[in-house]
Specification:
Number of strands: 0
Largest sheet: none
Number of domains: 1
Mean pLDDT: 80
Helix content: over 70%
Distance between the termini: 18 Å
Length: 209
């Protein structure tokens, strides 16, 4: 096996470790901070969810990162591709671990996109990048926090008003409200299970001869 492939494979595992030290904490920090569930359960559930998500629901994101940011990436010489991916993995690992040690929550996906952007400019030039796709990704970085804030704000208001207001709302109404919220959660879970059952694997791009 090629030395660049071996090094990149090792760095991929190191990247997964670094993502666990930062991105996983972003999602699990609230459960830990509120002491809602024990630490061992948090780690187990987090590891299980990360595995299931990466295994069954990551195909579109992985395809975007591997083929849609740098144009005609697979048409480049294989040695070129290997060195570029090594650089991306190394850069991402170092930055994510540095951020983790600094206590700074960041996004591993954002880091990888930035690393791909830098590697693509140096290796193939500005014209090789899919700037339209990059613009869409950049826009999502600004839009997604706003959408999340609105949804979180709305859910918090709904839960507080409909399930905790014991003075003006009857017990029956509050119970029905909880059932409604539970049904919404069940619908989301059903959708995810459907994705797991009918998932599509990432199609491997054909390399140039």
């Amino acid at each position: 096996m090629d030395v660049w492939v071996i090094l990149t494979l090792i760095l991929s595992f190191m990247m997964a470790f670094s993502i666990g030290s930062n991105d996983a904490a972003n999602g699990l920090g609230t459960s830990y901070g509120t002491k809602a569930i024990p630490m061992r359960a948090i780690i187990f559930n987090g590891a299980l969810a990360e595995f299931v998500g990466a295994m069954f629901c990551s195909d579109k994101v992985a395809t975007t990162l591997s083929t849609d940011i740098i144009k005609d990436l697979t048409s480049l010489p294989e040695d070129f591709q290997k060195k570029m991916m090594f650089s991306v993995c190394l850069c991402s690992f170092v930055f994510i671990m540095t951020s983790s040690f600094s206590g700074m929550p960041i996004s591993g996906t954002h880091t990888v996109v930035g690393a791909l952007l830098g590697a693509g400019i140096i290796a193939t030039g500005y014209d090789s990048l899919n700037w339209k796709q990059l613009g869409t990704i950049l826009l999502s970085w600004f839009v997604s926090p706003l959408i999340s804030a609105v949804i979180s704000f709305s859910l918090m208001i709904m839960v507080s008003k409909l399930t905790m207001n014991t003075r003006s709302l009857s017990f029956r109404f509050r119970l029905l409200s909880q059932q409604f919220i539970t049904q919404l959660s069940f619908m989301m879970l059903t959708y995810l299970i459907d994705k797991l059952i009918n998932h599509k694997t990432i199609s491997e791009p054909q390399s140039s001869q």
